[in-house]
Each structure stands twice: as C-alpha cells, then as structure tokens.
C-alpha cells in the first residue's frame, strides 16, 4: 500500500511542491535579512509597505484562477472536445484580464500626478517619500499586467504537471534572491531594487504562462467578443465566492494580532505576531502540498473515482494531525530559543500561548485540508455560509471575550469554532461521497 502511495503521481507532485516551497520560503527569509543588513530601518519599511500593498493588489484576479483550475480538470475527461473548451476558457480569462490591465495601467499613469501616494509612507525623508510614490505606481502596473501574464503557471496543477510549476517557483525565488543580493551589496537604492524585483517576478510568471501554452499547443484561438463575455459571466460568480473565502480566511487568521494590539497592548501584540509568524511560516510550507491534492481530487471526482477522493482526504487529514501535533509540541518546548533567535531577548511567550496559537493554526490547516474537495468541485456555498457565520462571531462576539476574559479564552473559542466548522465540512463530504460510491 505504501509503495503504491509513494510511487503515485500525487505523491511525486506533493514532493515537488514541498521542495519548491521550502526553497522559496527560506530564500525569502534570507532576503529580508539582507535588506535589514544593508538598508536603514525606514528604507526597509518602504520595502515592507510596498510588498504588503502589493499583496492586496494580488487579489485582483477575483478568484478566476481557482475557477479555471477546476474547470480545466473537469474538461480533461472530455478528450479533444474538452481541450477545445479549456482553451476557450483560458483565453477568455487571459484577454479579459489583459484588456483591463492595459486600460487601468494607462489610467494610473494619467491620474497618478493627482493622487497623493506619498501619504502612504509616513516619514520625514522627502526623497524616500518620492521613491515610494514611484515604486507604488510601477508596482500597480506590474501587478495588473502580472494577472494575465501569470495566468497559466498555476494551471499546471490541473494537468498533474506540478514539476513545471515547482521549477518555475524555484527559478523565480533564486533569481529574485540573486538580484536583490547583488544590488544590495553594491548599495543600489531601495526603490530600484523594489522595481526590478517585481518586474523580474512578472517576467518569470509570463515565461510560465508561455510554457503552459506551449505544453497544451494552444497557439491560436478564434473567440468572439460575445463568447469571451459569456465565458467570463459564467466564471466570475464562482470566482467572487473564492475571493470571499480568501478574504474571510485572511481576516480570521490575522485577527489575533489586530485584537491583541487594540485591546491588550502593543507589547502583547508584538509577542503574538512573532508566534503567529513562526506558525504561518511552517503552515505555509506544509499547505503548499494542498495544490496538487486539490487538482487530484478534482480530476478523480470528475472521473467518478469517489473512493480515491475519500482515501486522499482521510490520509491527508491523519498526516496533518500527526505532523502538526508534533510541530506544536516541539515549538512550545523550544519557544524561548525560537523567540530569541527571531526577535531578540526581550520577546518571550508562555507555553500555553504558544500551544494555543499553534492549535489555532493547526485547526485552520485541518479545515483547509477537509474543505479541499469542496474547493476542487466548486461546492462553495457551504464554505461561504460558514465563513460568514465565523466572521460575524469574530467581529461581534470575540472583542467582548478579549476585553473580559483575555487572549487565551479568545484563542480557545476560535479553536472551538474551527472544530465545529471542520465537523460540518467532513459531514457534508461524507454525504457527498456516500451518495455516489
């Protein structure tokens, strides 16, 4: 059984993406150390602000990439006819995003003199403010173009070609690191580094999309304006659901630091944020394996291999519980070493806080794991409903808990909410598969 598991395409895909994400995460971590070492606190703050603002712009695909992944996996079972449909869906999204990227880029260039971008960067350094303004204008255009240019790379997952996605990710991380390192040691200004960093990533994403088109042999397409609009109108409502799920998940994940800082004090928030960063780093690497699992579940479901879907979900849940139980235990045992190594001797945390935050992230990871099938087949209404209820609890009830009962009680309640959410999703998954097996 285990020999079959380890030799399966899914396991090879998981191995590829795990290695790629680990390398990329370590290089991004080292990149921050380099920037801190060679640039002033305000210059690094400019970099941090720009990358954070860029993360917001990245949601501009409205979840269409996730919709495309699922639809392309579904169309694989339909042979040549499905391939033609997949090509039409891909180019409909590509041309639509390219059109809007060009329109908005031109608009940004014309209206930028009238927008006070410099107010986003609070500093007395006038030169740095102007550099921040220049970077932000360029970054907006780069990321707008990056949406269509990077459309093809994540779609490798739909065809089980995780190795191509992983290699592109590794090359992207290595080249970006080398560029930033060489420019930093030569004391090139931070705004030039920032612009080149984002342009480099965009061009490599474009290469990934061109490689995807080459692998599919989708060199030409004949699409009418009406057909493009029809395809986008079909995909957009589902994409907006994916976007809502992403934003709700991000809000719930970051609420720990937000509520700690606003209700318990900035020193507590600082400690919580460092612990949160530790677990986000670890879960981020582990969570990367969900990408090939997502596509595998989608393909198996549409090929009516429902028993395989059940096996994938059950084994991944058991693996997640075992691996992250040990992770939380080890992190809590070595918490002071971890805190001091990352943030300095003035940072510390009680074992209960480290364990509770670890269990919070473990519960979220289990939920993401349990809901993979729902994401893979666009069964999103139950996820949307659950996230709306969860967000209402976090927004309306949790502040009262923090003020009156403290941080640990808040974490305990959030963990219970995740567990209830997990049970509801697993029950729905069981019913979904049982009716078909």
From TrEMBL:
Subcellular localization, as worded in the UniProt entry: Cell membrane
Protein name: Polysaccharide biosynthesis protein C-terminal domain-containing protein
Pfam families reported in the protein's UniProt record: Polysacc_synt (PF01943)
Membrane topology: Multi-pass membrane protein
Transmembrane segments: 16-40, 46-68, 89-115, 135-157, 164-184, 190-213, 234-258, 278-297, 317-338, 350-367, 379-401, 407-427
This protein's UniProt keywords: Cell membrane, Membrane, Transmembrane, Transmembrane helix
Chief location: membrane
Species: Phocaeicola dorei CL02T12C06
GO cellular component, one term: plasma membrane
UniProt xrefs under InterPro entries: Poly_Biosynth_Transport (IPR050833), Polysacc_synth (IPR002797)
Origin superkingdom: Bacteria
């Amino acid at each position: 059984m285990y020999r079959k598991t380890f030799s399966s395409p899914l396991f090879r895909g998981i191995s590829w993406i795990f290695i790629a994400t680990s390398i990329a995460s370590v290089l991004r971590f080292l990149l921050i150390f380099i920037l801190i070492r060679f640039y002033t606190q305000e210059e690094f703050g400019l970099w941090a602000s720009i990358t954070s603002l860029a993360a917001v712009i990245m949601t501009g695909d409205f979840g269409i990439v996730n919709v495309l992944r699922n639809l392309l996996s579904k169309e694989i079972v339909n042979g040549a006819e499905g391939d033609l449909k997949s090509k039409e869906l891909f180019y409909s999204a590509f041309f639509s995003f390219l059109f809007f990227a060009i329109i908005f880029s031109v608009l940004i260039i014309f209206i930028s003199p009238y927008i006070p971008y410099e107010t986003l960067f609070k500093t007395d350094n006038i030169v740095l403010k102007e550099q921040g303004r220049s970077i932000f204008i360029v970054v907006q255009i780069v990321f707008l173009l990056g949406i269509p240019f990077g459309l093809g790379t994540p779609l490798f997952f739909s065809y089980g070609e995780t190795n191509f996605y992983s290699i592109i990710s590794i090359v992207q991380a290595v080249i970006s690191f080398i560029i930033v390192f060489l420019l930093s040691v030569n004391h090139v200004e931070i705004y030039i580094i920032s612009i080149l960093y984002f342009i480099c990533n965009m061009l490599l994403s474009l290469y990934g999309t061109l490689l995807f088109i080459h692998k599919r042999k989708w060199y030409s397409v004949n699409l009418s304006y009406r057909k493009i609009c029809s395809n986008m109108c079909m995909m957009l409502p589902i994409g907006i659901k994916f976007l809502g799920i992403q934003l709700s998940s991000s809000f719930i994940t970051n609420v720990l630091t937000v509520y700690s800082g606003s209700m318990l004090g900035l020193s507590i928030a600082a400690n919580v944020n460092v612990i949160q960063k530790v677990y986000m780093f670890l879960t981020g690497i582990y969570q990367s394996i969900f990408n090939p699992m997502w596509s595998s579940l989608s393909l198996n479901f549409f090929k009516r291999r429902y028993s395989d879907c059940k096996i994938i979900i059950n084994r991944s849940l058991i693996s997640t519980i075992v691996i992250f139980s040990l992770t939380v235990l080890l992190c809590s045992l070595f918490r002071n070493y971890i805190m001091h190594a990352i943030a300095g001797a003035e940072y510390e945390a009680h074992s209960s806080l480290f364990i509770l935050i670890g269990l919070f992230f473990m519960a979220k990871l289990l939920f993401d794991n349990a809901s993979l099938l729902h994401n893979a087949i666009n069964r999103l209404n139950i996820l949307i409903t659950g996230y709306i209820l969860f967000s209402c609890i976090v927004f309306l009830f949790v502040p009262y808990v923090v003020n009156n009962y403290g941080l640990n009680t808040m974490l305990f309640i959030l963990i219970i909410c995740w567990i209830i959410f997990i049970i509801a999703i697993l029950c729905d998954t069981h019913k979904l598969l049982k009716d078909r097996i």
